[in-house]
Structures are given as C-alpha cells and as structure tokens.
Design brief:
Blueprint lengths: L11 H10 L7 H19 L8 H12 L4 H16 L8 H14 L8 H30 L5 H17 L13 H12 L4 H9 L2 H4 L4 H8 L1 H9 L11 H18 L2 H15 L6 H21 L3 H15 L1 H35 L4 E7 L2 H11 L10 E7 L2 H14 L1 E2 L5 E2 L12 E6 L5 E8 H9 L3 H4 L6 H23 L3 H12 L3 E5 L5 E5 L4 H8 L1 H5 L1 E6 L2 E3 L11 E5 L16 H13 L2 H19 L2 H4 L2 H13 L4 H9 L5 H12 L12 E3 L7 E3 L11 E6 L3 E6 L3 H4 L6 E6 L7 E10 L4 H10 L4 E12 L2 E13 L2 H12 L4 E6 L1
Parallel strand pairs: 2-6, 12-16, 13-15
Antiparallel strand pairs: 1-2, 3-5, 4-5, 5-6, 7-8, 9-10, 9-11, 14-15, 14-16, 17-19, 17-20, 18-19
Length: 842
C-alpha cells in the first residue's frame, strides 16, 4: 500500500487505508501520489475546522468508485468535491494543477446534493463522470470538424463517421493524463486539418491506432472507409504482435514498415508526424526514462523526417520539445535567458523591420517583412558547436521577406545589401539550387545596427508555403498554381525512390534504419560533374558517395577520382563547388574499407549489397588474381613456386582452422588485403626480407629495418596520414596518403600504415615560402623555425619579379622536425611574419 504523506488521525486513517486498499489497479507511483495529494488536501482542510468526521461520505463514495476501477483523476475529483459539499467549503487553493484539466472537468460536474442514499449518490457520480468524458470527446470532435470546414459536405459527413467509429473502438481506453484515448487521434486529425490535408489522410489520423490498440480488423476498416484509408492505417500500426530478439529489432521492423508504407503513400508519414507532434506535446505524463527514450527517437528520426519532407515548423517544434525532455535544466536556463533578452532586443528588431519595409517600398517592391525568434534548440546547437555563452550569440532573430515573384527576390536582395552590408561568403541561393526537400529561398547575413548579424530569407509566397508545410502544401494547392508545389512533390518522390533502393540493398531492419537515419540529416554539399551537372550529397561525402549518386554501376567500378582536376584519395571530403571526375576500371570493385568513409545511405547500402552478392567462386578467382600480383612483387619466382613454401603455408592455415580457398575468398571480397597475405607468406618463407617483414598494417616506431623507407617524394613525418607501398627489389615505401605516388598506384598494392609509439627521432620535411624581400627577413624566418625546436638543414633562395611588387623572394627550407604538431607550430609562426605571403609544404 502507498504510504501516507502525513499522519492521519482516526477514523480518517482507516478510511484512507480502505480507499488505497482498493487501488492496486492504478499500478503507477504517480497515480497513487495524485490520490494521496487529494487525501492530504481534504484532511488538512477539515482538520483546521475540527470537521474531519464529515469526510466519511467523501471517502466512502470514492472507495466504491475505486472498486469499479475508475481513473485516478475521477477519484481525486470526487473525493475533493464531496468533501467540499459536506464541509460547505469553496477553498480557492484547490489543487487544480495536481488533478489536471480532466480532474477539474469532473470536479465541476459532480453534484450529489439532490441524491439521497449512498447508492443514488454513487450512481449519480458515475453518470456525471461519464458525461464529463463524453463532453471532452464531443468538444474534441467539434474542434476537428470546425478546423476541417474547408472540406465538402460529403467529406465532413465521412469524417464525422470516422470519429464515431474511432470513439466506439477506443471506448474505455484512457491516456496517462486521464483523457479518453480517442481525444489523441482527434487531436492528431485536428493538426492535420490545420495543414489542410485531404479527407483520406484525416480519416487515417482519426483511426491511426484502432488496428494496434483495439480489436478492430483491417477488413472492417476496408468495409467502412475503403482500401486506401485501411492501407494507410495499417502502415501506421506497429508490429508488436510479432516476436523479436530484442526491443531494438522490434523498433527497427516497425520503422521499416512505416517507411515502406510512406513510399506507397507519402500521407502516411504526414499522419505519423502529426501523431508524434501531439505525443511530444503531452509527453510530461510519461515516466522520465520513457520521456528520454521517446525524445531521443524524435530528435534522431522524426524531426529529421519532418525536415526531409519540408515540414519546417514541425521540424523546429519537435526539436524544441525533444530538447526540453532530453536536457530539461539546459532548456529551462536557455528559455529564461531568451525571455530576458527578448525585452532588450525588441527595439532593435523593430528598427530593422521598419528599415527593411521603408527601403523595399522606396524600391517599388511589394513585400511582407516578418521577424521571428530562432527556435531554442538551434540556438543551443550553435552555442554547443562554437563553444559560446548565450551572451555571445548575436543572431537569435531571423527575418523573412516575402515577395510576389522570383525576379523580385533578387531585386530585394540587392536593395537590402545596399541598406546593410552583407557578410562575405554567407549568401546562399536555394532558388537556383533548391534543397532536396524542395525548399527554395535566398539566404544572406547582413551587418545590422550595433554590428549585430541579421539573418534574412527572401522568397515568394509559394516558396514560403512549401518552406513551412513542405509536401503537405501539395494538397492545399491541388486546384491552384502548381509549379513550385509539383517541384516539391517531384523531389519527395525522388527521395522515396531512393528509400526503396536502400530497402532492396539492406539485409535486415536494423541495417535499413541505420541507412535511413544517415539519409535524414539535413546538411548538404553541392558538387559538379565534369559536364556541369549539380549533384547534391550529404555533408562529409566523398568521391565514392559521388560515384554512387551518379550511378550504382559507376560506384561499383570506381578506382580513383579527380577533384578540381587533381588526383585525390577516395576518402577526401567534398565541399560545395568541387568538380569531381570518377575514374573507373572493369576490374574495380567495392571494398569493406569504403564503409569507413562513405556517408550517403545509397552508397553504403550499395557497397554492402555488392560485397554480399559476390559469388564465392568469383571471389576466389579474383582473390587468386590479386594475391598473385602482390606475391610477384614481393618474392622471387623460385621461392614463390617452391613446394616447401606451399606446404608450410597450408600447415599454417590448418592450425588456424581455415583453408586456402577461404583466404582467397576473403581477399576477393575485400575482407583481407592481398599485400597483407603476401607479406605473411613471405615471412613464412624467410626469404627476400631476411625475416624482417612486418604484418599489415605497418606500425612505424622510428627504428625501422633497412627494407622500410620513408618516401623522398613527400617526406612523411609522424602525425601525417600514411600508406605503405610494396616495391619490387626496394621493399616497403611509406608515403603521405595525399602523395601523387599513392594516388597513381593501384590500391591492391597499398597497405595501411600507422605511426606507433615513436622513439625520439627527427624527420626531414621541406617548406616553400613566398615573401616580400626586406632587410633581416631571413633572420626573422630562422628565429621562427628555431624557437619552435626545428633545425634548418639547408635553404635555397630565388628572386622573382611580380606585378606590383618590386622585390619578391622565394625560400625553400629543408627542415628536421619531430612530428606534424611541431611543424604546424612553425608554420603558424611563419604566417605571423608580415612580409610572408604564402607557406607551402612540399
């Protein structure tokens, strides 16, 4: 039994314990706490007037209701209201916050003054409770029908029918807040009606939980509302009736079902987002652990889904709600700080709005100018990402300029740039190059009053509708101007098609969920093919991601890439504006290593699929070919063909419980590097490297054998990312991974290499400096190098004549340094010398 919060004197103690003995069905700590608050409240109220004996009827009727398993909000409301009747009290300190809006609704409805006898009073209370619940349902239904008044008369009748069907199916079910469960689907549908979706999506919103939470069958929904609505409701239902190995697998399977239903009908995800939005708004009724789990899922998946289909206002609200439950203290502190700053910055916002409006009017541009406060989570993210205090975040307001057509967008941009100076490099044209979710706007950041940065978005009315409602705006404008809305629909359909490709290449639901989550995060880069076509990729994408975005077959045959006409490693990150050329080969194939640096879901799922699809016999043949090439570079032919080496290697494999075929298969599938296997065979042979061969990856300690050398073309030093090459008759050569030698060498002959725990050695590197010639310059440079512990081995100078500069000199310094960190300190100090214009490492 739940312990009392205070000492109750007899007989109230007995009445209270009898009541709680009947409440085991409540089954939750917070429900017992609510009831105990009500008990303590009426006891304190009665005790101060010496009327505790008058609480008998209140406890008696509430105990009878508990025997009938009434909701705790009803128990608390009845307990307090009947106590009020018998004590003739109208205490203004009624704990309305504790019993909640449902309890207050029931409290207002309870009236037993006209009833005689306990049975009549009990029946009266039960009827008034049921009437209160019905009033709540009717109020929610009326709100929905009013919000959906844009529908035709026939559609409104169908919606009303769906409300009655849902209310009947959910009868007797309640949410944690004490509200009848049907109020949740009705609230979901009301939110959908605010987005002006069609009748089928509204009915799906009302019915979205009937398959999952009631005994209703899909066939019943088909018979009553048709197959389209039934399929949408089915897509929104979880797969909880099946058995899974763990909760993660169950959630992943349910998510896969939802996403696949979305690919058939995008309205499914719009209904789901409305469902999640209402659940997040009412999340406080859940336990803290549940709140954190749901908030994390919302932040990682559903907020990103909203952004991906262009529901930006939902995206922002879901982020803020998730932030509130994941980090409640941070949320509260930041909310108070913004509230305080709002008063201080109101004048500045008004000044900017007036200046914008006046300047646009003077330029004869018809425009609406709005200012909005950025959402809490985006401000928090900026503080976290840039390690700022709130006082250092200047741009907490954004301004939106809405004009009539696209030419006016660019004209308005020029007008505002004449009003306030723009920040260089911060202008983004999403009209010419829309985002993947169809979003279009011009973005710029201006230096406003008092040096405050002002973020401005300029767009047309159509673009504004799409920016806020995304794909949902399609149903609002079916009969109107469709150009921009069709573009948004087309881009969403393209994304949905990519989801189908991911599903086809995913081995299971967990892998599918991982790929989709990767695909949802919004930051993008825009790169060009050699012919000028724009390819949109996620932030952090590499040439391999680019290759798969062009075509899966090109990705599968990629061997190297040129970025801006320069050969670069396949793991190089791409940036907006890069031009990328992919070099393919008929012998090219994906390797598991690619999964370590690719970021796009399409590329990762295609790579995994290609690796898994490779036939064992094909893999063995390819592995044999690759290993033969590696061995021929490493061992003399007489050793390679010797029977003794073959016997020794097969014995070694038997001891490891594997076979030569398995090794060849793993080499062919990219799970083993051919040079690694070849080096192990060479080690067993005891030939060529005189037992000094190391297994891959090469770990450099600064005390290498005579058969491991640092490349003289790029002079790697500790801290550089490095690769090893096997060169016949030379041994192993270490290069920086950006070295042209590496870029031009077949990856099959490359081996991973790492800097291990190093001995105190110095390593050679070369710096090229361009500077304005002046007296004492060489001494200044030498001081910058020596003060950081570097040693100068040699220096060369070449005088040049540059346009506009009388004397310009180039130095080439050969240095001895310990590692990359020391070299970076030297480079930093050289950059601080006023005469030096450029410092390059060769």
């Amino acid at each position: 039994m739940y312990p009392p919060s205070q000492t109750y004197k007899p007989p109230v103690k007995q009445w209270r314990n009898t009541l709680f003995a009947q409440t085991e069905y409540l089954n939750k700590q917070e429900r017992w706490e609510l009831l105990e608050q009500a008990c303590a409240y009426i006891y304190t109220l009665a005790e101060k007037d010496g009327k505790t004996a008058l609480l008998k009827r209140s406890f008696a009727i509430t105990t009878f209701l508990a025997q009938n398993q009434q909701r705790v909000q009803a128990l608390a409301a009845v307990l307090i209201k009947i106590a009020f009747e018998d004590l003739c009290s109208s205490d203004s300190d009624l704990p309305s916050a504790a019993i909640g809006p449902v309890g207050m609704k029931i409290f207002d409805a309870i009236n037993t003054s006209s009833c005689t006898g306990t049975n009549d009073q009990l029946q009266c209370c039960q009827q008034q409770i049921e009437t209160s619940y019905q009033d709540i349902i009717t109020e929610a239904e009326n709100k929905l029908l009013h919000t959906a008044s844009y529908l035709s008369k026939e559609d409104l009748q169908m919606l009303s029918r769906a409300c009655k069907f849902g209310a009947h199916a959910h009868h007797g079910q309640f949410r944690n807040s004490g509200l009848p469960y049907i109020t949740h689907p009705l609230a979901v549908a009301t939110q959908l009606a605010e987005w002006h979706v069609d009748i089928q999506a509204l009915c799906a919103g009302v019915l979205h939980d009937v398959l999952e939470d009631t005994g209703t069958t899909k066939e019943e929904i088909i018979a009553e509302f048709g197959e389209t609505i039934a399929n949408m409701v089915d897509g929104l239902s979880k797969l909880e009736k099946l058995e899974y190995n763990n909760q993660q697998e169950a959630q992943a399977e349910s998510f896969r079902k939802l996403i696949m239903a979305m690919t058939q009908d995008v309205r499914v995800i719009i209904v789901k987002l409305s469902d999640r939005l209402h659940n997040m708004r009412t999340l406080s009724a859940k336990k803290p652990a549940s709140r954190r789990r749901i908030a994390q899922e919302t932040m990682e998946i559903y907020a990103q889904l909203a952004n991906r289909i262009g529901l930006n206002h939902v995206y922002r609200e879901l982020q803020d709600l998730a932030f509130r439950h994941l980090y409640p203290h941070r949320y509260e502190v930041l909310a108070k700080a913004i509230q305080s700053s709002r008063r201080n910055r109101r004048d500045i916002v008004g000044k900017v709005l007036r200046a914008f409006s006046q300047r646009l009017v003077s330029a004869n541009i018809e425009a609406q100018v709005r200012g909005r406060e950025k959402n809490l989570y985006s401000i928090y993210e900026k503080m976290r990402r840039k390690n700022l205090h709130f006082a250092d975040v200047m741009d907490i307001y954004a301004f939106r300029v809405i004009v009539n057509n696209i030419p006016s967008c660019y004209t308005a941009l020029g007008v505002l740039h004449n009003l306030y100076k723009p920040k260089p490099g911060r202008i983004k044209d999403y009209i010419a190059i829309p985002k993947n979710n169809g979003y279009q706007s011009l973005h710029t950041i201006l230096i406003g009053p008092y040096g405050l940065p002002i973020e401005v978005q300029i767009r047309t009315h159509e673009m504004d509708t799409i920016a806020e409602r995304g794909i949902a705006s399609y149903w609002m404008h079916k009969d109107g101007e469709q150009n921009s809305f069709d573009q948004a629909q087309m881009r969403t359909n393209q994304w949905l098609q990519s989801i189908l490709d991911i599903q086809a290449h995913s081995a299971n639901a967990i892998e599918f969920l991982e790929h989709v989550k990767t695909d949802l995060f919004p930051n993008e880069v825009y790169v060009f093919t050699p012919k000028g076509k724009i390819i949109t990729l996620p932030e952090g994408a590499t040439p391999v991601d680019f290759a798969y975005a062009v075509h899966t077959d090109i990705g599968n045959r990629t061997v190297s890439a040129r970025i801006n006409h320069n050969l670069m490693p396949l793991r190089t990150r791409l940036h907006t504006g890069d031009t990328v050329e992919i070099i393919t080969s008929s012998n090219g194939h994906p390797t598991p290593a690619w999964l370590g640096f690719t970021v796009s879901s399409h590329a990762r799922s295609a790579i995994r699929s290609q690796i898994k699809k490779m036939d064992r016999s094909d893999a063995i043949r390819l592995g044999e070919k690759l290993l033969q090439k590696a061995l021929s570079s490493l061992l003399p032919e007489n050793v390679l063909l010797s029977d003794s080496l073959k016997d020794k290697y097969l014995t070694d494999l038997r001891q490891k419980n594997t076979s030569f075929e398995n090794v060849l298969c793993e080499v062919g599938m990219g799970l083993l590097q051919p040079v690694s296997v070849a080096m192990h065979i060479a080690e067993l042979a005891g030939e060529h490297f005189n037992d000094t061969i190391k297994l891959a990856p090469i770990n450099l300690t600064g005390n290498e054998s005579t058969h491991i050398h640092l490349g003289k073309c790029c002079h790697p030093i500790p801290g550089d990312t490095i690769k090893a090459l096997l060169i016949k008759d030379q041994g192993i050569i270490i290069h920086r991974d950006t070295c042209n030698t590496i870029l031009k060498t077949d990856p099959e002959f490359q081996l991973d290499a790492n800097w291990d725990l190093l001995q105190a050695n110095n390593y050679q590197t070369t710096l090229c400096l361009n500077a304005i010639d002046s007296h004492g310059l060489l001494a200044t440079i030498a001081q910058a190098i020596s003060s950081n512990g570097g040693d100068i081995t040699s220096v060369e100078t070449t005088s040049k004549k540059l346009e506009g500069v009388e004397g310009f000199i180039e130095f080439r310094f050969v240095l001895q340094v310990k590692d990359l960190n020391q070299l970076n300190h030297i480079t930093r100090d050289l950059h601080s010398v006023p005469q030096i214009r450029r410092v390059n490492r060769i």
